[in-house]
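Researcher: Watch the backbone:
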Amino acid sequence: MRPAEPPVADRAGNGPPASVVTVDGAAGTGRTAVAAALAARLGWRWCSIDELYRACAVVCRRTGDRASVDDIRFGADRTSGGPRPTYRGQRIDGLHGPDAADAGSFADDPRVRAAVAAEVRRFVGSHDAVVEGLGAGQVFPRAVLRLHLWASPARRARRHRAGLELDAPRPEAPLRLGTVAWNRGSWSSHDTVSRLRDRVNVALGRRRRSVSVVIPARCSRDALGLVLPRLAAAAAGCDSEVQIVVVDDGSTDDTAAVAAAGGARVVSLGASRGRSGARNAGLQVATGDVVVFLDSDMLVEPDFFAEHLRLHEVANDTVVVGGRRHLPPGVTDPADGRVLRRDSREALLDVYSYNMACLAHPWSLAYGCNVSVDRWFLERAAPTGFDESFVGWGLEDQELAYRLAGHGARWAYSRAASGAHLHHDRTMTAERFAGWKANLRRFVDTHEEASALERLVPGMDPSRAVDYVDVYRGFDGGPATADEAGLLVVRVPGSDDPLPAVQDAVANGAGAVALVDEGDRAELAVLAEAAAPGRGVRLYGGADWDRLSPHPGAG
């Protein structure tokens, strides 16, 4: 592999590759199998950079000459096992045996790394291709899609016990912004490849991503008159297809007529089925790739849909929990200059961090007033939708989120994908509290392992004056303080990519990492989990950290 040799495509005048998808990630996540299957599904070429590094190790060990790697090539033809490296025209065997154990040192050699990159480009030429392996995203920085596969350490260990190679000498691939983090934890290879093919088609402009917003409404004529124009404006500013579904849950006013006049697809139930039933009815007609559940009295921001969709592009299995602010009585315009009251979740996340993975029970903050989920994931993790045995107020949304969590959901809390809640009486009455407790009993009876929810009762009881943050800490546990001893603080400007620094910190033994992001980027919560699985990297905005830490600006 001679770095100075021009790629075949350049000599032939065919130009650069038409389209490339790169696949990298942690060892034990099935990178090669996914890349090969995706290429077959697309009808594209594929090759493995890791195979070339193994070939370098094998040839060098057998010849005793590190310069011999210059004569390694990819075979000209694909076989059922993919293109295999050759040395002076002879196929190299033993690529997964002990002779390849030193492959990582070749990946660290700049000269060999450049030669490997040149050979991969030569082989790909002007063909559409899926390229798998260490540094694939750097070899093809303009790839239409860059994928980083990851899984929990426990899942990777199971693959190892099953006899699958974990490729221990391979350096850990850096995860960078702009890469799609794909969690293999709860996905079959078939579903992974099917969804990735869809992502490729979106990236190539062959189809548009779509989103449906499902709004249960009962006697909501006045609120919808304010809500729907703002939804229409957000839809007009979004590059994706937007469907608005309003479910008239047995209204006695002209809710349905107002919804239809506002451009919504209206589902009229006649008799009320409650919020769970109304949402399920909306799901039956929703066609979007992503489904947003929204209350009928939420005034959204102009980039509402764009932000929800953007966060779903960052990773699979993501549940986006949108922010909410409460409008004062009589105010119907969030921009009137008044300071809006935050909801309880922001007060909690100020302390716990805006990475919901730091919570023991992140599903407990997934309120149905503003939350979105990938439809494909929803249909597989919760095919029955919301549990309609939950009646009255409370917990039906968290119960659905609990089931999503059981199937590997990852969480992104976004203050940008937000809405302003029109004022209404939110007083916790004795009657509402009794209904909430009845739903709590349904929850715990169905999911015994969620019995910790009972610790929230004092915080909901209208007869008791308690600090809800303290009650929630008793329910969830979690970090004691933002200034915990041994906490390594990584503070980055909003334009920088902090993920390699997080990986370095964990690799160097940091027990706990706080990522202070001046850019307030919600996607870092999901990507930090992929960069350091199971470590619960804490995420704070710069102003949040300065307010919490006794040493402002530390780190």
In short: Residues 364 and 398 are 6 Å apart (CA to CA). Residues 430-446 form the longest helix (17 residues).
